[in-house]
């Protein structure tokens, strides 16, 4: 197992764990104040983290909440990156939308367009 007192820069870890495509993007997110470590906002990319820290940050249209499991030594493949953290955010429900009636035909679509066309 790794040294429990080991530390790593937060921008490097976010890049190692493949949350951001480049290290500079990760550093920008931290500098802009969008990342929290154990519920405390950090603004320095050189902020160090250790195993057990909880990170909260926006990614795409979702807010990620992850716990650091390991620090890592390189930016490896995705399978290796997934071993660096545990995702704490609840999974979002993706219920399929059920169709109400039969699928509309081209004729139905043209009639609908005629009704909604103001001119």
Structure characteristics:
Structural Genomics Hypothetical 15.5 Kd Protein In mrcA-pckA Intergenic Region, Chain A, two-stranded antiparallel sheet, five-stranded antiparallel sheet, elongated, 22% strand, 119 residues, 7 strands, 4 helices, alpha+beta
Describe the structure.
The chain is of the alpha+beta class and 119 residues long. It has a domain at 8-90: Structural Genomics Hypothetical 15.5 Kd Protein In mrcA-pckA Intergenic Region, Chain A (Roll), CATH 3.10.290. The chain contains 4 helices and 7 strands, in the order βααβββββαβα. The protein has a 5-stranded antiparallel β-sheet. A two-stranded antiparallel sheet has the order 1-4. Strand 2 (35-37) and strand 3 form a beta hairpin. Helix 1 crosses helix 2 (23-31). The radius of gyration is 22 Å and the shape is elongated. 20% of the residues are buried.
Please summarize what this structure is.
The chain has helices spanning about 10-15, 25-30, 80, 105-115; strands spanning about 10, 35, 40, 50, 55-60, 60-70, 85.
Q: What is the element layout, followed by pairings?
A:
Layout: E1 8-9, H1 10-16, H2 23-31, E2 35-37, E3 40-42, E4 48-49, E5 54-59, E6 62-68, H3 78-81, E7 85-87, H4 106-116
Antiparallel strand pairs: 1-4, 2-3, 2-5, 5-6, 6-7
Helix pairs in contact: 1-2
CATH architecture of the domain at 8-90: Roll
Compressed to H and E, one letter per element, the order equals EHHEEEEEHEH
Biggest beta-sheet profile: 5 strands, antiparallel
**Percentage of residues in helical conformation:** 25-40%
- CATH secondary-structure class of the domain at 8-90: Alpha Beta
